[in-house]
Input
Amino acid sequence: MVANIEIIQPSGILDSTRTQELRDQINQGLEQGAQTILLDLEDVTFMDSSGLGALVTALNAVRAAGGKLCICSVNEQVKILFELTSMDRVFDIFRDQSDFLYQRMS
Output
């Protein structure tokens, strides 16, 4: 964790079998004092509705803890899923980690 930012990088398929692991990582980051959680989805090859549901649950948990949840490096499939469900308007989405850090510093 750098400057109260926890970067979490799930990989592979983000579905119902992987959502608990993601929630555990986010909760651990919050417990360690992270104020911002950055989910870097660069290595996520596919996300289904349960994966999206886990992100919404995580967003609510982070907000309830007074923090902020951001997402970066989404692939085309995830981008389309976000757009179809209008989640692209709910989440702060950045091109990549560099874009996130640049926006945070300015």
